[in-house]
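User: Structure please.
Assistant: Input sequence and predicted structure:
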Amino acid sequence: MPQLRVAMAQIDTTVGDLDGNVRAVRDWTARAAADGAHLVLFPETAVTGYPVEDLALRRSFVDASRQALGRLAREIADDGHGDVTVVVGYVDRADVERAPGEGGRARPQNCAAVLHRGRVVGRYAKHHLPNYGVFDEYRIFVPGDELLVARVHGVDVAVVICEDLWQDGGPVQQAGDAGAGLLAVINASPYERNKDDVRLDLVDRRAREAGCPVAYVNAVGGQDELVFDGDSLVVGPDGAVLARGPQFVEALVVVDLDLPAADHSPGWEGGVTRVTVSDDVVPAYESRPSEVLDPLPDLAEVHGALVLGLRDYVLKNGFRSVVIAVSGGIDSALVASLACDAIGAENVVGISLPSGYSSQHSRDDAEDLARRCGFAYRQYAIAPMVDAFLATVPLHGVAEENLQARVRGTTIMGLANQEGHLTLATSNKSELAVGYSTLYGDSVGGYAPLKDVPKTLVWDLSRWRNEQATARGEQPPIPENTITKPPSAELRPDQTDQDSLPPYEVLDAILEDYVEGDRGRADLLAEGFDATVVDSVVTLVDRAEWKRRQFAPGPKISHKAFGRDRRLPITSRWREPAASPTLAPPVETRAVEAP
């Protein structure tokens, strides 16, 4: 049987940085060539980054992508690696005539190209365009309808893109019918908790259906609210995992495969484009064992996603440092720890902004956090600023409480503006769900690392991070008192979160069903939740949509994150039956934990 050494380059690209992405593909091709690879696979739209969103609708962008691809093919050959076959994703346009009424629309396509000896020798357009969750490809791209089979050293390699693998039938079935010896799948599949298990099951099933190994390469890196986790793998037609790469880091996953020789007279040709790269079989060589890594445990996986998403957001947007309002509370403590892990403590600034209600233990905990993590720490008392405001504009009750948060927000943004930091918001998903945050107060920031992290998971991650530090002989970054004390906004005397909210264990369980599961009131009651608590929580969630629309982006880790995953109207009179007897306006009615 012919042999192929296949390399899967799970790389971190940046949307729009075509020159930088081309350099990355060249560099990783050189690494693969040095390792003896015959075929190198790169992720979906690696040339342009992913997702490009409406950039694809600009003719100038599609032209630049096409030009960058041609330049890439030539430069790989100029680098001395022209004999290596490279499969890489990019944005192209359909060759068909425009439909009536489409005018100057560019008719872009999500494509894969086969590069060899300085030329683009094959092209494939993605067939199935996802239009759910965070994906809007159906409104942006034009689907393809031809399968690409490239003959590489005497092996027929079928090429498909991401969603094509998730759909029954279609290109995968075509690949099997066309006698493919290898199915190469290039992907930009965003991270979600437990998705690695789903992917493996899918690749296993498709390998059995196609009757050949499946090489699945995935992107790695952060792009706005998405995090790509790598986890590239190769599965044989019997379901055996032949290679599996790491998560959340760039890597070259290499596997030696014994594959069936190409059928020079295939019996089925409908909808198949065939190109011959090389008919010459690779001379026999000694295969090497491939690395098969186990997926990370759940909390390690979530932590890795948050750190990578934060690091890439900071660096890809031109920042080098962040500033965080540290209150002594658990949320700001975890955010500070994540920031230090992501970009180094030397690039993190923590600001304590105590008010007249801030306890001494909270001030001490904030200072202890800075000492443990090693970031720069300052303290500015906000009481004089609050008093000056109240002397001019008298406010009372919740408005006065929220004023403290807004003074903190103004202060932290002023320092960020003056010193060039990116401000990190510290609110978590539970608070965001029920509107338990002060708009233009603790919600200020350019990025929110905990946006998709429920409060109970905040505690779990904090304990896990401390345990990891202890296991390595390091000092735990988060003070124990910060983890164990009852959470409080400290905007009035003796305040705790549970004055206004159910216990977080109960709240998060309801939110998981209502927000992520789209279950209604009756479903929640059937699950055994108390009716009064359910009515209170769903009403708070429904009324807080206007706040969530104004919140900073943050890394997606769940099946349904706030934002593009969950699209609900701000102006809506729908309420879950019996959840709210009267229609209340969406006003701010509660204070929140300060950053």
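The first strand starts at residue 3 and ends at 10.
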